[in-house]
Specification:
The chain is mostly beta strands. The chain contains 3 helices and 28 strands. β1 and β2 form a beta hairpin.
């Protein structure tokens, strides 16, 4: 399961020799001092901690910040800063009596280049719960280069209306550059419209994630937006994503990308009904390699369930009754 593979990306800590503290900043005068590493700082976020405070320094796990948004204001571009987010107990099938029931419920815009945001739930198979604050909202918008998101379970908002997007990679060439994102070991839940949405995002890696019954699509690029390119989408699991809507991996215009080793289950296709473009779609792009994926459709339905560009190479994708060695 995705979150079981998460490790805190925190290199060797270097402690300052003096810890004078800063007046009015909780946590800055503890013996641990300001935590730094050779390339950046580690900031802790835990809305369930009794001493959580967005006025804190944030570098002491016993004086954490309350929000990811506040932690991002402390980060510097390309410094290698890490935001470590503690686990919570907001899973809908859990029990409130265990405490720690406050989820991460923010619409966060990641606007600092080179930041890593990591959910720390080492005993959880899905990760730290993160929800958009409103229906049809976006939990995490990446508008900076080289951002890592890892170890989160993106779920619907608490208003019960469903919808929304887990992660949106945004690019406009002037103030937003959602390129070079790395999304791994995350879970995208069944009431979201989209798990990950890509707008002209290049060199983005999406690995070892789970997409469960996303209403519109698991991974999606809107044909009305500029096309993504040089993607790597591998080792992800998709369960009934986009049934009757878009599908599992719908990146129709992508070019120069690798889509490999994914598992795609579609209950309608599994039952023998040919469904249109709910598997993998790259038909308006080109020069992609689509290889070693497992799809729950028959060979006879492959060309309906998936679509390719003429210049793509679809190699040994495995279907219900055997492998396909041609493009759909």
């Amino acid at each position: 399961m995705p979150a079981s593979n998460v490790t805190l990306k925190a290199p060797l800590l270097r402690f300052k020799t003096l810890f004078p503290g800063q007046f009015g900043v909780p946590g800055s005068d503890v013996p641990l001092g300001i935590r730094t590493n050779p390339t950046g700082n580690v900031y802790y976020v835990d809305p369930n901690h009794a001493d959580a405070n967005d006025d804190a320094d944030g570098t002491d796990p016993e004086q954490p910040l309350k929000t990811i948004t506040e932690a991002l204001t402390r980060c510097a571009n390309f410094a290698g800063d890490v935001i470590a987010v503690s686990a919570n107990n907001d899973w809908p099938y859990g029990t409130a009596t265990a405490g720690r029931t406050a989820a991460i419920e923010e619409a966060v815009t990641v606007n600092k280049h080179g930041v890593s945001i990591i959910g720390l739930a080492p005993s959880s198979p899905i990760g730290v719960i993160w929800k958009p604050p409103t229906a049809a909202g976006i939990a995490c918008t990446i508008s900076a280069l080289d951002v890592l998101i890892e170890g989160f379970a993106f779920c619907e908002s608490d208003d019960g209306a469903g919808g929304g997007t887990g992660i949106y990679c945004e690019w406009n060439g002037t103030t937003a550059w959602g390129d070079g994102a790395h999304i791994r070991n995350c879970y995208f839940g069944d009431a979201l419209d989209y798990g990950v949405q890509l707008e002209y995002s290049w060199n983005t890696f999406i690995e070892d994630c789970e997409f469960v019954e996303c209403v519109e699509a698991g991974i999606y690029s809107d044909p009305a937006d500029s096309a993504p390119a040089s993607l790597v989408i591998q080792r992800n699991r998709f369960l009934d994503c986009g049934l009757g809507q878009s599908g599992a991996i719908i990146v129709a215009e992508t070019i120069d990308s690798l889509i490999q080793g994914n598992w795609i289950y579609n209950g309608t296709a599994q039952s023998g009904v040919g469904v249109a473009l709910e598997g993998i779609d790259t038909h308006s792009g080109g020069d992609n390699i689509v290889s070693g994926n497992y799809l729950s459709c028959a060979l006879a339905d492959f060309g309906t369930f998936c679509d390719s560009a003429a210049t793509d190479a679809w190699i040994n994708n495995y279907l219900l009754n055997g492998p396909s060695v041609t493009n759909p």
